[in-house]
């Protein structure tokens, strides 16, 4: 039985495909870019099979799943679905963001993930065995400026995963959400900044971020836990990343009131007369 990994043409997905094949599992990799998937197949051989499909296209996804039956026996049933394909687009504040970008993120990270899960789940429930591993993000848990729809889509992934657990109660089907923080060496920021590699690279400069292999190793570890054990959610950050204080916006204080106007013929202010105690202490000096 196979591991179906979406977004296997790059980043985490490609690293997971490598790691699972290395560990002896048959892997089916899904993505849009067939050239990248074929290049990976060159390295991984027959233990890696390809499904070329756009996750946002339900008809293409159904056709891809239907074509599993043409693959060798070991690839026909999905024992583990790793919903990894996903993206962020832009970092603009909500009031300036491109709405088309928002729609693409929602269609991919939410609708595509939910649809594929819905299509794969029944055979897992029928077998009373299977595993859905969803790639969320720390962006689901810690809002940041410009995170708007991306963070919200990952909050969906988190809550969807936990709700799946509730629906699958009494079955042997496991569900986990993995929520990574800053992770370099993938196309994620390059895609987010629409090919601006200088801006993307700057995010990972002079710091030790997570790697795609760290995530692949973690997902393999999850899969290999005993059948009675379910990790609900797993949040991972590089040591170099932590939490910041919540910003507080303060309005500048009003300027002090101007001194009262002094009349030109007003008497000069007289020095205050000293008290008896002050005069006595002057005398003792
Ligand atoms: N890197 C990070 O710092 C980080 C942190 C937290 C969470 N994550 C999450 O981890 C997952 C993987 O990220 P990554 O860093 O590996 O990103 P990546 O290198 O950009 O890879 C994203 C993968 O998703 C696939 N994909 C995108 N849209 C698709 C669509 N419509 N249909 C099918 N496949 C699609 C891409 O393949 P094609 O372009 O070939 O279709 C690619 O293989 C994402 O869900 C991301 O949100 C990443």
Report what the structure shows.
This protein has helices spanning 11-22, 34-44, 58-66, 99-127, 148-167, 188-192, 197-202, 212-223, 276-284; strands spanning 2-6, 27-31, 48-52, 78-83, 130-135, 173-180, 233-236. It has 285 residues and is an alpha/beta fold. The protein has a 7-stranded parallel beta sheet with strand order 3-2-1-4-5-6-7, sandwiched between helices. The protein is elongated and about 110 Å long. Bound molecules: NADP nicotinamide-adenine-dinucleotide phosphate. The site of NADP nicotinamide-adenine-dinucleotide phosphate (NAP) has 28 residues, from helix 1 and helix 6.
The ordered H/E elements are EHEHEHEHEHEHHHEH
Average pLDDT reading? 96
Counting H and I runs of at least 4 residues, what is the number of helices?
9
Please give the share of residues in helix.
25-40%
* Poorly predicted regions: none
What Rg is obtained from the alpha carbons, in whole angstroms? 30 Å
| Shape designation | elongated
Structural class of the secondary elements?
alpha/beta
Bound molecules: NADP nicotinamide-adenine-dinucleotide phosphate
Reported for the largest beta sheet, the result is: 7 strands, parallel
| Spatial strand sequence of the major β-sheet | 3-2-1-4-5-6-7
Strand percentage, roughly? Answer: 5-15%
Number of strands: 7
Roughly how many Å apart are the termini? 100 Å
Family: Belongs to the short-chain dehydrogenases/reductases (SDR) family.
Biased composition (Pro residues): 250-262
Region (Disordered): 245-273
InterPro entries: NAD(P)-bd_dom_sf, Sc_DH/Rdtase_CS, SDR_fam
